[in-house]
Amino acid sequence: AIGLAVAAAVFQDAAGNDSLAAAQVSASHDGTAPTVTLGALTAVGDGTYTSVITLSEAAGNGTAFELADLTLTNASAVLSGSGTSFTATLTPVSDGAIGLAVAAAVFQDAAGNDSLAAAQVSASHDGTAPTVTLGALTAVGDGTYTSAITLSEAAGNGTAFELADLTLTNANAVLSGSGTSFVASVTPVAEGTFGLAVVAAAFEDSAGNKSTAAQQVSAEYVYAPSVKISGMPESFVGRSSFDISVEFSSPVVGFEASDLLVHNGSILRFSGSGTTYLIGLSASGAGDLTVSVPAAVAHDATGQPNSASSTATAFNRTAEETSAQIASFMASRANNLVSNQADIGCLASNSCGGGQFATQVTKGQLNFDFATSRDRSIWITATGSQSENGTSSDTYFLATVGMHHHVSSNALVGMMAQVDFQSTQNGASSIEGQGWMVGPYFVASLPNQPLVFDARALWGGSENTIGPLGTYTDTFTTERFLLQTRIAGELIFGEVTLRPFTSVAYTTDKQNAYEDGLGNQINSQTVSFLQTEMGLDFIAPLFSDSDAWVVDGGFSALHSSSRGIADNTPAFDEMRGRVHLGLTREIDGGQFSVGGFYDGIGTQGYEAVGANVSLNLNF
Q: How do beta strands 392-408 and 240-252 pair?
């Protein structure tokens, strides 16, 4: 406030009168210019910024504070408020620095004082949305693909770039990296097109700008090259060689012979390229041969590694084939053993000879039988044979020696020992065996009746060699048992004597397990053989006026049954007929016989023909 007053008697008039005092007059004075205060530019979050503007005093004297009073840099603005409080809302024109200032004298206060200038307030504006760049999907070579992902700026404002931000088509992915550099490892789910994209607004930058979308990058996925092995035989025997082929579903490189996994064999040859390869294999003969192609030993043009093949197996039938050959050999030997057993029934009546201990022939078989008189207790027989059974050729020899004692006038007991040999040839395979058997025998006849019963029980073993394939030889042993019984009678019709008979023989041969020369385990097995025979023999003088020559012959029906021979039934294992005819002449101290026979009537695959010569001497 300002004031003016005049004191009394400060002057006199012409008359000398002192002046009176003048009361004070006053007024209020405003000489201070109004100021403008600009608040800092603050980002609102929608791309605009605000500044709070405060005037020290309201505009007056006919002036106003308005939008035009604002000095803007790289921005446009809206002004709101009144009196001394205003707000400026700035919208940046482009990225970079933005500013707000107020020049001097843009308004006056009520006293007419011009306003002072307000210095610029500024901020840095980022209004560009972050972008995402996806690199092409590149095959790594293990069935996965990678894409390099580059962000134009790192995620911020409380957000992050993460796996969930990826949009995947026909694929799964793993995301790694940080900042602005990431790598997506993509694994296709199925064949065909697969892709990777990033949706919009996946993250924000530090300025709050939401990221833009990244268009999908895609590739075509084809399954890993598959591989198939063909040409592998179902089975083989011994050391064998053969060719197989390995075929890939698409051309590959890098496949070599050393990539094959071969068990119980080796690679002889390797050739091929692209999709097809030819491999020559050699089987060791020990165990099954297996071949496989592991995964990832070769790759296609895209770097995709192959998948593993299934295992191709050729079963080793060496043990099976060897066992089958041994079983057939044992069955054939059992048949020969039973068929060549000596007739001991005649020992009870001292009637050996005249066809009783006669020569028998089987496809060339020749028996030589010798017997002592009843009062003696030692006898010996020898039998040799050559037979054909299917494709097999057998050579067989049996020698028997016996010793007995008469326990009564109608019965005797004794012990016999036998040694035999058989050689079997069937194509390239061959088997030979030497065996022995020993055991008791018993013969009895009914008093005053022409009925004789005999039985024998023998135990023993054999040592054998086998060349199942003709390339190597092994040895094996067996344990054997034989039980045989026979009942014979006699009917006399004038000069003709008929001798009906029946016999049953049962034998077993157990082969012991062993390991062959190739390393295969040959399991133990047992072959049993049962033969029944019924027949009628006759004896008659050749000339009615002489008993020096005797003709003998007969017919019998036989049935054999072998057990333990899988899928290889011998040809003699069925009903068949047999006939024989011979001549016997009495000589001093014994008999001399010749004859022949035919065996195999009614059968296919088995027949036996031969001649016999027999010399029986009484000692």
A: unpaired
